[in-house]
Amino acid sequence: MNERRILIVEDRPGTRRMLEETLRDEGWDTTGIEDGGDAVKRLRQENFDLVLTDLELPGKDGLQVLEACRESDPLAPVIVMTAHGTVETAVEAMKRGAYDFLTKPVDTDRLLLLVERAAERRALELKTRVSEDSARPPVIAGESPAIQKVLRLAEKVAPSDSSVLILGESGTGKELFARYIHSKSRRAQNQLVALNCAAIPRELIESELFGAEKGSYTGADRRRLGKFELANGGTLFFDEIGELERDLQSKLLRVLENRVIERVGGSRSIRVDVRLITATNQSLEQEVAEGRFRDDLYYRLNVFPIRLPPLRFRREDIPILAEHLLAGFSVEMGRPALGLSHKALAALQEYDWPGNVRELRNTLERAVILTEGDEIPAEVIAVGEAHKPVAASVAAYSDLHAAVRETTRRTEIDCISRSLKECDGNKSEVARRLKVSYRSLWAKIKEYELE
């Protein structure tokens, strides 16, 4: 069960200490602050399940603390404390969204009753929000036999708790399919928590997965819940699972076998109940054969594999995808829906889309921005820009420095793209081949949208 966090803002040390001890005895993770200004900063940096604040504070008053909480997390209840002379202010606080108020001196029985009621309301509102989100499965546009086949597989495996391994090139929609499976599962009323294994620094990945106790590493100034605890009762999605270091592969395997985790720096075993969905654009079988991925973990993850087709294998879906994406951009940008000219649609269907649906989305977003009328012309469909020869891309530059920058950019794109293809998407191998750090390679991949 996730530990509940409460922020207590009270400038009198004795009262603050009493409130912290009372709530800590009831299982709350308490953070006490005496200054209203510091509380506002903390609320902008961290998440709390509930806030208990005095009205008269140094720095900023309780109403300003309330406002900061409402901005950072509208669902977090705020209980205000007031002396008899400031009851009118407490009423004003409730008009502005406070859950309730307590008069001083604080009656601990009433305090605990209000706190539990507020916590129950927050849990109900969060559950309602998750339920509303989960009740609408993500739209997977397409009518081709290739995409319909994988949709049928997703619907068959969704009701079970079996591990799913989603395979496919970058940009094919692996996380979208993970969310689709979750939305059709018996866990849909709880959260899906996603983690990209390649995007987290190696020294932080363990605490991201399993959480960390206060003081367990430099900068750990409070207890931190990991992805397993956050996803408890729901689904955990690990993208780029092939990038997980071998020592963490062993720990992940133990969690899958025992359904128990330990936070970094902790000794208490915590039971977790999650359904695991993983994804990769690598060949995990090859990674196993070359000793970079544990075979026992691979068998655990590969219970139900689903391979997503690249966009070039389902070209008949391009008009449907384009229509769906353009409708979304119209809503986002607040403009009437756009159509595609015949030549523009032909350009989309003739291109091979090495970046798949993600590249199609980026291409159409740029086209929408550049289009002034109600139909997108072929001239603004910039397909294959990243793959044009370097000489052609710099011919238009008369400025030497600009030409050098463009040449460098195109050379890096070409070199990284070619290496990713030759190494079957294995970024660790690409980094070794190009003699750069993994983090530098990852930054370039994100910068050039080569994923």
Global shape: globular
Within the largest sheet, what's the order of strands?
2-1-3-4-5
CATH superfamily of the largest domain: P-loop containing nucleotide triphosphate hydrolases
Strand residue percentage: 5-15%
Task: Detail the topology: elements first, then pairings.
Blueprint: E1 5-9, H1 13-25, E2 29-33, H2 36-45, E3 50-54, H3 62-72, E4 78-82, H4 87-95, E5 100-103, H5 108-134, H6 145-157, E6 164-167, H7 174-183, E7 192-196, H8 202-210, H9 227-230, E8 235-239, H10 246-258, E9 260-261, E10 270-271, E11 275-280, H11 284-289, H12 295-301, E12 304-307, H13 318-333, E13 339-340, H14 342-350, H15 356-370, E14 375-376, H16 390-394, H17 400-422, H18 427-434, H19 438-447
Parallel strand pairs: 1-2, 1-3, 3-4, 4-5, 6-11, 6-12, 7-8, 8-11, 13-14
Antiparallel strand pairs: 9-10
Helix pairs in contact: 2-3, 13-15, 18-19
Question: What features would you highlight for this structure?
Answer:
Helicase, Ruva Protein, domain 3; Rossmann fold; five-stranded parallel sheet; 4 domains; alpha/beta; 14 strands; 451 residues
